[in-house]
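Q: What structure does this chain adopt?
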Amino acid sequence: MTDISITIVAYNDEEDVRNAVCSIMEYTAVAISKKLYIVDNSSKKNRLQTLEEEYPDVVYLNPGENLGFGGGHNYVIPRLDSKFHAIVNPDILLTEDSFSVLLKFMQGEGIGMAVPRMTDEHGKMQKVYRRELTVMDMGIRMFLSSHFKKRQSYHTMEDMDYQKPFLVPFAQGSFLVIQTELFRQLGGFDRRYFMYMEDADLCRQVNQKSSLWYCPDTTVIHKWERGSHKDKRLLKMHITSMIKYFCKWGWKLW
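A:
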């Protein structure tokens, strides 16, 4: 059994995936046993498979179809033999030994999943920590982001002390570390979501059985493309997933 397993789901972003893998391999302590799975959903040819040759801890998997974000991460569940599992986006970069810090943090009682301090490439804190989702908050975020600033600040937990750990209702799913057995018990991500909202759903499930905590002791870089804000097709997909989320969990308006 390894200390940690890691999954990165690729989709036509070879350079980002390579950079993420290289940063993980460079900064993670040798004492931590790990297995890193690349699940390749790409529609274009790439050379990601060569990462298996470069790093013995890397396993390249090609399911032969685009399984979506959650489906790609779920694809590795039968293979997992680890104490903890990390869900990592291709647009993540490590600049320190974040996994050692997070694994130590997660020894705390009742911590089922943890999210680190996340910043952009210039060190600016990202608003990836949120209170329970409501229809109003999602509507503001998607269509009225230049308005209702006070409500947005509340929703993104800007009133919290980020020098200390705290419980998080929903952390955006770019970098999450979860107890592997808990991930397995939950069945991974809910398969009804192809992309978007599956991270909110997973966080909610974790908080029902255990708890999700913010860890202030390590920082990872997240480039965060926010594709649905630029692409109408992705926006439609985001709205569809949002409807599925509220149909499942209830239409809390505010």
